Amino acid sequence: MLKSLMAATAKEALEQELEEKENEKKKYLEDKTPPLHTSCMSIAELKALCEELHAKIDVVDEERYDIEAKVLHNTREIKDLNIKVVDLRGKFKRPSLRRVRVSADAILRSLLGSKHKVSLDLRANLKSVKKEDTEKEKTVEVSDWRKNVEAMSGMEGRKKMFDAAMGQNQ
Questions:
Q1: Which residues form a coiled coil (predicted)?
Q2: All residues at 6 or more sequence positions from 36 whose CB lies less than 8 Å from its CB, including other chains
Q3: Which of 7, 49, 68, 146 has the most neighbouring CB atoms within 10 Å?
Q4: Cα separations (Å) of 144 from 35, 140, 141, 148, 160?
């Protein structure tokens, strides 16, 4: 439905454009060609007028022919050049583009030029973490759970765990 509406509006626009061109052509001809009053002319004057009009028509026809010849020549030349372009595209194989890694400093140098010495050392701005601190946290008492299985079993074992947890919280 949308395509048919678009086609209908395009058709209306085309018809309107053709009417406008026709009206412009009529206005141009009315402005450029004065009306002929042949009723009061003699036969000799009419013959002279006809010869004059024929001479003007011949000049216009020659100009039209020259322009048509130039247009044909140019269209042939355009076609030939298009064929050459297509041939050249086929001859040269385009290389596949590869992703290039460029540092931030290189990008800034290319954008700002070599005059500006701007450094983007992003690693210097990062927080540093000491490895010793993380190793100490990891070495918290890790014992084998199998050693105390019998000692922690039953109610006495649970009481010991409860007392140990209460002792750590205080």
A1: 4-63
A2: 49
A3: 49
A4: 120, 13, 10, 8, 17
